[in-house]
From TrEMBL:
This is Malic enzyme. Pfam families: malic, Malic_M. The active site is at 100 (proton donor), 172 (proton acceptor). GO terms for cellular component: cytosol; mitochondrion.
Amino acid sequence: MSTPTTFRVALRGNAILTSPRFNKGTGFTLKERKEFGLTSRLPSRVNTLDEQCARAWDQLQSRETPIRKNSFLQSMKEQNWVLYYTLLLRHLRDLIPIIYTPTEADAIANYSHLFRRSEGMYLSFPDMDTMEEDFLEQTKGRDIDLVVCSDAEAILGIGDQGVGGIGIATAKSVIYTLIGGIDPSKALSVTLDVGTNNEDLLNDHLYVGWPEKRVRGEAYDKFIDKFVQLVRKYFPHSLLHFEDFGVTNAERLLELYRDHHSCFNDDIQGTGAVTLAAVMAAIGVTKSKLVDQRFIIYGAGSAGLGITRQLRDGIVTADSISPAEANKKFYLIDKFGLIKQSLGESKIRQDLSDFVRPDDEWDGVPTNDKGEITLLEVVKKIKPTVLIGCSTHAGGFTKEVVQAMADGCDRPIILPLSNPSRLVEVDPKDANEWTGGKALLATGSPFPPAKMPNGKDYVIAECNNALIYPGLGLGAILSKSRTISDEMIIAGARRLASLSPALTDPDNALLPDFGDSPAVNFEVAIAVAEQAISEGSAGVDWKKEEVREKAKEKQWEPIYGEYVYDKDGET
């Protein structure tokens, strides 16, 4: 682990008590209290970290609503990092929904009304001319490994949230630390405030962001580019994580910068990678190949397209066929039905062009009253082996659709991934029942086990990005990779798939339990770093055999070290 046993600290008195990085609260030893001028500032008894966690858990339980629990944990993070992360790790499954989705969405939506203190870097469009000066004010002297940024146009299914996007950037940074072991002092959360088109925010006299319509076009691009170039200039080996950008910018910005810096977009690549891992695990059960699958992607937004491309790249890598051939394995469906040539340019986004189906494939296939080919008709015609939902169309996978799919293959792979659970395309227990227990299932939200015909419980895997993106990021950071290549992501997905419980028991979950996510992501990070070294993009002089030991040394863990006062020490 990277956490040292001894810190040389330059802070004393209230300064150390108000530093979340160094504050121990009642955990300061008697020796430290004397040395740092704390004896009269703390109650007499010294508490262990276990005792502090027990007290914090009791305090948290007294908060009755998720949003109040979220607020309590936010306050704890601002006071004491070690206690905060230790508490989260001990209650991971219970608290992730509080600090991340779904509760964090409520906190972000009410950000201006809940605001107490700043929690990251706020870069606003009107201050573009002084951006470098402002950037350096917060980062000078810091060693930054991770930068998480958002322009908040597409937050957690609730849309444009303006300056509240800082909430998703900080939440993602927390997950990187909690599950990936990245030192929180080396992470930077940024909101890129380019205005908002959310009328509720614009009309709210308490809104704390820039109260103007969202900037578009060349002005937007210049603002984003100035920020990216600052990251590249001052932290060339950092990971730049783009989060919750809108569909018109997410893919475009990733493609613009990914060959020049280590960039990652969780909505596109993280969702795609964890879905690829689930599919790889499922075909391990069915004893088939990626190239043998026929995929329907129901919902062709940024997540759906990201999944499609990641699966396509997985096929190309695993089965050595051309991208053009791999593209033919996919059938994308959006609000206009099947994406086919006759829809025309007005209904087909440019970024979907690789996956447009020729019209002559569909001669004689019935259409609805709008002339669209529906999901059911596509299922009946192509007999898919994999059906993926990222449409937020609740109930879109009807009984007729699911049964038609089961009629066409022995073990249908059905992944209704839309969040939150109320928007899922099919309840997994229904899909399990309608297929007679044949379906291999994973969902985007947690669901209880489904009963198999033999009476056994079928554990529903949660296809949660947090099972892979902290490991992808950690692997890039460890290797100081100049870019995050498709092959690095696929290596991480392959490692995650290899940990699938279903590979030893086909009635078990397709993906590891979320409670095991720290250990799982460590394995993903190893695979990613090894791949970076193999392909020559790494900035470290390591051999592949050294990666595991080096990674262990660099992991941050929430433990109290021993403090020694040193006026030239850390602050």
